Amino acid sequence: MPLTYPQTPTVAQTDNYHGTLVADPYRWLEDVDSPETLAWIESQNELTFGYLETIPARERLRKRLTELWDYPKAQAPLKRGGRYFQFRNSGLQNQDVLFVLDSLEAEPRILLDPNKLSEDGTVALNSWEASPDGNWLAYATSASGSDWQIWHIRNVNSGADLPELLEWSKFSGAAWLPDSSAFFYARYDAPQAGEELQGANYYQKLYLHHLETPQSADELIYQRPDQKEWGFGAQVSEDGRYLVINIWQGTDVRNRIVYRDLQNNGDFVELLIELEAAYTFVGNDDGRFYFRTDLDAPRGRLIAIDSDQPDKAHWHTLIPEGEHVLESVKMVDDQFVAVISRDAHHEIHHYRLDGKPLGQIALPTLGTVFSNFEYSVTGSRSDRELFFGFTSFLFPLTVYRYDFAAESCQAIFQPTLAFDASGYETRQVFVASKDGVQVPLFLTHKKGLELNSQNPTLLYGYGGFSVALMPGFSISRLAWLEMGGVYAQAILRGGSEYGEEWHQAGMLHNKQNVFDDFIACAEWMIAEKITSTARLAINGGSNGGLLVGACLAQRPDLFGACLPAVGVMDMLRFHKFTIGWAWVSDYGCADDPEQFKTLYAYSPLHNIQPGRRYPPTMVTTADHDDRVVPGHSFKFAAALQAAQAGEAPILIRIQTKAGHGFGKPTAILIQEQADMYAFLVKTLQMED
Predict the structure, then answer these.
(1) Has 445 been annotated as catalytic?
(2) Per residue, what are the HEC states of 66-93?
(3) Catalytic: 131?
(4) What are 617's strand-pairing partners?
(5) What pLDDT score was predicted for residue 1?
(6) Contact between residue 614 and residue 548 where contact means Cβ atoms under 8 Å apart
(7) Model pTM?
(8) For 23, phi and psi rounded to 5 degrees?
(9) Which residue among 24, 517, 625, 626 is the active-site one?
(10) Does the annotation mark 509 as catalytic?
(11) Which residues pair with 142 in a beta bridge?
(12) Which of 8, 238, 452, 532 is surrounded by the fewest CB atoms within 10 Å?
């Protein structure tokens, strides 16, 4: 029976975009804290949770996910001052706990337990950096998934925090001075009474904070009030001589570099000030700087720039662009260690300082190198060891130590699961998109999969912002595989899996390529009899939520269920909220007449057609998401419910006291995943 949806009033709101009149009847839902919106949230959640409670599989799935989730986990350690800092989780802890070890064989000691920062686990550790001597920890916390963070300083020896708190920071790390007496961080000015956070004085500044001083005494190091969209990421060179500032602008992969010689605290030098390419500082030898860049090399190269001859004519290429993507480079054991992406999975190579190849560190299978929240390894130039985490679809995060002297790689942490992976397999295929471009597609399923078109399949994608979607382990997917499900991960244009050209092929006016790639993967699986429309679900979050919303609007006949999460659904107004302005580099902006045409053509909210039959859909969002504001999902769900001509359910699940996803408590993650799978069990008509 069709559901009776809560009434969503409409308003007579119409906007004129360059001569095109566009109605926005649910504009009032953008005010997420109004009494009317709060009442709407309550009624929608009542409908959604009432629907989910009728599904017998829901509780069984929650219990099984809890069993699967309950295993010890660890990340690659980071070495500072002879100590090792490492995140661990006993199994079901809401947040990972930071431990410190005096040696790899020593008994771990809890340094910071984020689970004790709040009763419900909604305060998360957002960023952290240990001092060079290993005696101090600068760490930033955020509440309810917000991007805003507060910096604290903890004494590693005593475990006590200093009294000062550093507020109004966002999108910032910490970079310590070599003597561990102070660190650089970025923040905004505290708003004055009645002042908007997007107002004239809302721009980032770089400060130096000295230990045991109030925030009001912080030293302003760098600002550009004439460039309010610029943000700053500080690094201090390992030799302690240079402050290197990465100047970022929104989500543009291109950046600028300025530096200061800390020996004389002279003027900042604009080393790379044109916004023409991506540059990542790798290290230096005195005044010679090493950068990974995609300038004239879409797949990346390693260059050396001498500060006394910085013009391009005198640049030196140490590792030239190759057939595959140079993902990242670190200096460890006085050599370059590079993570290479080959067809969307990783390899580790190392090179002498003159760029001569030294060999490859063998990895256990097709998968992903992951350390310290990036595709990289951990280690310093003076270290004789490096660490990295390795994972794949059926391979849980395992921590490895590579000994340069012995040229040996050993697993130092390998988890044990309540799951036998030997009965499953992963394979990679390549699918021709609409324009003939070959799109990689990973498929994970039980061995001996029968090609009878009846296999329930979950297709996942992202495709944007130069984000590489690599093989990764997710404990929740094991429950899906156990039910006979196929997990499919599409490597879409818009990411960085094949370098900057691949990214640009899925951004701005090329964004439709991303949707075409995803649709092509769905059609291929149906043609190959892996699944059928009735058994095919699609899922993605954030930019991936946009992907699902756009494909749902364009091809509602192709999917059996849709799960867009925290998606960017209103492509005409996204830039007006919180950090949305920063996405213009990838999406474009409706203020531009030509970009408006492109955005309007695929904007999920504006391409829902009344009277059309849409597949079962459960939109998911959070009431305190200050990255992709929940108004996107609210308006999209309301429009879809009003337009639905079929009997398939259109639901929205709104998580309260939560944000965009980072730092979300384990208990909430398990319940969300159980609800998602329960929805699919019912809508894909899987055996219960």
Answers:
(1) no
(2) HHHHCCCEECCCEEECCEEEEEEECCCC
(3) no
(4) 562, 650
(5) 67
(6) no
(7) 0.90
(8) -75, 145
(9) 625
(10) no
(11) 124
(12) 452
